[in-house]
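Hi X.,

You mentioned you wanted examples for the new student's onboarding notes, showing what a folding record looks like when two proteins sit in one file. Here is a clean example. The first protein comes first, with its sequence line followed by its C-alpha cells.
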Amino acid sequence: MHVLPTLRRAGAVLLLAAAALYAAPAHPAAADEPGWTAEPAAGAAATVRPYFYLAGAAGTVLEDRLALANTTDQERTITLRGADAYNTADGAFAVRLAAPGSGATGATGAGSWISFGAAATVKVPPRTRAVVPFTLTVPPASPPGDHPAAVIATEGGHEVGVRVHLRVGGPALAALTVEDVAVRGRGQAAVIAYTLVNRGNVALVPDLRISAEALIGEVSDPPRGRTLPVELLPGQRVELTEPWPGAPAFDRVRVTLTVTAPGGARAVATGSRWLVPRGPAGWTGAGLLCLGAATAAALYLVRGRRPRPGPDPEPDAPSAAGPTTPAPHHELTGAAR
C-alpha cells in the first residue's frame, strides 16, 4: 500500500510550510516605511500638534516650524514644499501633486504662499531630529475665510503631508446646498445618493437627517441624525451615499434630506423613484399597477358621464276659478231609456 509514503510526503510539505512561515519577517510592510517622520514642531508648552493652525489678516506674514526625525542609520535628504488641499469626489482630504521633473510645486492657492527659503532641501543625519522654519505670506487681496493647504515632505519616492489650517480674517460665511438626490439599487443594496456643495468660505462638518415616504405602503426611515465623516472645504463638492437596507421592494418612495452645519448653514432637498423588483415579479407588479390605474381611470370616466337625476316635477297648480267639477259618469246597462 502507498498510504505510508503519501503521509510522509504530506508531513514533509507541512514542515516546509511551517519553516517558511517562521522564517518570514513579522512586519513585511516595514520595507515600505520611509524611516523618517514629519510633523509640526512642538509649541512653547511642548504640546503635540496634529496639524498647523495659522490665522491672520490679508497682507500678513505668518511663521511656523516643521520637525523632521530620521529614525534610521543613514542620512536622509528630504525636499519640502507647500501644496493646495481639496476634497476628492468621495469627500477625502487630498493635496495637489507637483509637476513631475519641473521642480515646481504645482500650487496656485494657499500652498503657493508657503516658503521654506533656502531650507527647501534638508539633509538630516542618522538618528537626528531637525526643526525647519517656514513662512506663509498671505497676499493683500486674499478673500476672508479658510484656505486649506499642506506641507509636503518628499524623499526616495515617499511623501508625508502635514495639514495646514489657514484662516484669513474677515466675515465668515457658512453655506451649503444639497443636489442630485436619488435612490439607487433595490432591496438590501438600496442607497440614497446625493451631492453636497460648500457655497461659503469656511470648512464645514455637516449633520444629516433623512426622512422617507411611500405612495402605497409603510416605509421605514433610513438611518438618520448623524454627523457625516467629511470636512467639506470651501468651494468643493462631494458625492456621498447612505445605505437604506429597509427600502420597500415595490413602491414609489420620496426621500427628504436635511443637512445642517455650524454657523447657520442649512439645506433641504428631495428625490423620488419607483422601486420595482427585477424579473417576472417586477413585470407582474407593474402590470397590476397599470391595470389598477386603468380601472380607476375608467370608473372615474363612467361616473363623469352618467346623467344626473333632475328635480321632481311639481304638481299642477290649481286654476284661478277654483277646483274643477268632474264630468258626469254614465253607466252603460244596455237598456233603452
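Then the second protein repeats the pattern, sequence line and then C-alpha cells:
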Amino acid sequence: MLTFSPATAADIPAVVALVNSAYRGESSRQGWTTEADLLDGSRTDADDLHSILAAPGATLLLARTAAGELLGSVYLKHQAPDLYLGMLTVVPTQQGRGLGKQLLAAAEAHARSLGCTSILMTVISVRHELLAWYERHGFARTGETASFPADPRFGQPRQPLELLVLRKELAE
C-alpha cells in the first residue's frame, strides 16, 4: 500500500537521488525508463527541485511505502484549465509493478481536486516505449512539439531531441 503526499524541502536530497537513479547512469538501466543512451549528466538537481517547490501551483507528489520508503515521485503544476505532469519517477528495481499507474491515478485525483479538465505532459519523441505506455493510460499526442531544454541541469543530449506534447482529457 502506497501513501501519497507533497514533498517538502527536507525531501529534496532523496528525490534528487531517486530521479537521477531512474533516468540516468548505470542504475537507471535496471528499469525500463532509462534515458542513459540519450542524455549524459543528471536529470535534476537540488536547485531545480527547490525552484519547483517554490513555484505557485506546483508540487512534487511522493509515493511511499507504509514503512516510509520513497518509491516514486511526480512533478505536478496547475496551469488552469490543465495540470502539467512531468518527471514521473519510480525506483528502477520497482518498475513494472504498477507503481507508475498508481502515481498517474494520484496525479489525476490531484488534477480533479483543482478543477482541471486535462493533464498535459511532454515526452522525448524517440522514447517509443514510454510514449506507448502513456497512450495505454489515456494520453494522446496533440501534434505539438517543444524543443528539448538547452539547460545542462537536465542533461546533455547525445543526439538532437524534441519533446512531444501529450494530453489526457479527464472525465467529469
